[in-house]
Write a structure and sequence with these properties.
Blueprint: H1 3-11, E1 17-22, E2 28-38, E3 41-51, H2 60-65, H3 68-90, H4 100-115, H5 120-128, H6 132-144
Length: 156
């Protein structure tokens, strides 16, 4: 391998997405992009266009007719969804912390409803003036912190 070939291999950069495009005259093109997060959204940071045969010149007409939005629309949607999922994982809302008194109160309401054979989540929600979803979360926190302990009935 010559020094020029080594340099060419070293200069080649991996692209995030590569698609083939055939223009109106039938010439084949490799269109490659690198994606970058810009203001919380995936966007194209680098665009590379090269002819498949290596000899066809890139003209203004080819650039004008190149449908970038159509070529990369599906890929960008997938990348945006991945980014959205990653951002959600990083910035997940953890909720507020609850005092021991609040968790004891939740536990008392829960146990009273449980013994009375009432729907526990609805009862906790009504008594605390919160939604059933919020009540369920508070019950879960109280159970996790050991304020609610239910023994399972013996199996026969």
């Amino acid at each position: 391998m010559t020094n020029q070939q080594k340099q060419t291999n070293k200069d080649k950069k991996a692209h995030d997405i590569t698609v083939k495009y055939q223009d109106a005259s039938g010439s084949q093109w490799n269109v490659e992009v690198e994606l970058k997060t810009i203001n919380g959204r995936k966007g194209i940071s680098t665009l590379s266009i090269s002819s498949v045969d290596g000899f066809t010149p890139l003209t203004r007409r080819i650039l004008r007719d190149l449908p970038l939005d159509l070529l990369f629309h599906g890929h960008m949607a997938v990348e945006s969804k991945k980014l959205s999922i990653n951002n959600r994982k990083k910035t997940a809302h953890k909720g507020r912390t609850h005092t021991e008194e609040e968790l004891q109160n939740v536990a008392e309401i829960y146990m009273t409803a449980f013994r009375a054979h009432l729907p526990v989540q609805k009862t906790v929600a009504d008594m605390l003036g919160v939604s059933v979803s919020t009540a369920a979360k508070r019950i879960m926190v109280a159970r996790k912190n050991g304020y609610i302990k239910l023994e399972k009935p013996p199996t026969r």
